[in-house]
Amino acid sequence: MCSFEAVFGAPPGVVAQAPGRVNLLGEHTDYNDGYVLPIAIEQQTTVSMRHNDQGEFALHSEMLGSTVRFTLDTLPAEHFATYVYGCLVEARADGIHTPPLDIHVQSDVPMGVGLSSSAALEVATLRALRALTDQPLDDVRIAQLAQRAEIRHAGVRCGIMDQMASSLADTKSALFLDTRTLDRRLVPLPPESAVLVLYSGVARTLAGSGYNQRRAECEEAAQRLGVVSLRDVDDISAADTLPEPLCRRVRHIISENARVLVAAACCSAGEFGGLMNASHASLRDDYEVSVPELDQLVALLQAHPNVYGARLTGAGFGGACVALCEPQALNEVSQVVLQDYSDEGFTGRVLVPSLSSTV
């Protein structure tokens, strides 16, 4: 564990943080201009920085134990550095002064599990840059620059949900977000409910998964249907006019948007859980982004009597699942389900122990 001062020999000028997130409903809808319902988690990424006079940026990752040096003229070879580099380049293009900096990153947001560690890094970087340069950069603009950084420089054609959640959500209420208009409001969790996040033991990376392929399929489907994006399709029967696999991709997006709208109307825990179960089935069968380990872990959660519902969370292809549970049974649920999962030859763990309703 090397602090900023241990690495760079002096204290930082500013320190900023941003949380990871777990998405409760609305998977793969954000890059289709749809609706999402994420909530921030307690785990945070911390970015510290100060000006230097070295003529180049020095970026130290405490998690990786390495320091990367770069200028804004060339994309760094190290993948983790591309996220920070992208934020700096996009901030500069937006008129923000970005002099050479010493940058230190520390994070307890789990990586590669679907909790948006990349967005937390991007938002924390831009928050620190805002504080250091005293620029009038609001939280929505931070999310937009962070998304642009990930698309243009890290190679992930992401929607804006993760960045908006990291920049604007909290751990007490879900953030209902219209990703087309960026209209948003906080939505309480259903009464007498709590969120549990478990890791499947299967890591995934978006740039190397089928994520970009799914986005391309949605774009092709929208073009065939004559709409700007799949957000503009309300009638699920429109999917039947398309060939495989486009018809199933469209069916997921339309039905998932509808599930988010129902959930955002503050439904009961039981109804919310049913929507989560339906979401997982759709992600597994129509969108094909689940894996056997996720399916098994979700099935074990759904079968537990103190669980209202469960689904994979994040883009899929591995990672984590999220469950809505009775608050008093969280420990029992996690212990029983993970033991059963282990008995079947898999290794999982608790990622986010509890996000509870206030009612």
Automatic annotation (TrEMBL):
Keywords: ATP-binding, Carbohydrate metabolism, Cytoplasm, Galactose metabolism, Kinase, Magnesium, Metal-binding, Nucleotide-binding, Transferase. One of its GO terms (molecular function) is galactokinase activity. InterPro entries: Galactokinase, GalKase_N, GHMP_kinase_C_dom, GHMP_kinase_C_sf, GHMP_kinase_N_dom, GHMP_knse_ATP-bd_CS, Mevalonate/galactokinase, Ribosomal_Su5_D2-typ_SF. It is an enzyme of class 2 (transferase). Residues 4-50 form the Galactokinase N-terminal domain. Residues 269-337 form the GHMP kinase C-terminal domain. The keyword Transmembrane does not apply. GO terms for biological process: galactose metabolic process. GO terms for cellular component: cytosol. Its EC number is 2.7.1.6. It comes from the Bacteria. Residues 83-168 form the GHMP kinase N-terminal domain. Gene3D superfamilies: 3.30.230.10, GHMP kinase, C-terminal domain (3.30.70.890). The keyword Secreted does not apply. Belongs to the GHMP kinase family. GalK subfamily. This is Galactokinase. The lineage of its organism: Bacteria, Pseudomonadati, Pseudomonadota, Betaproteobacteria, Nitrosomonadales.
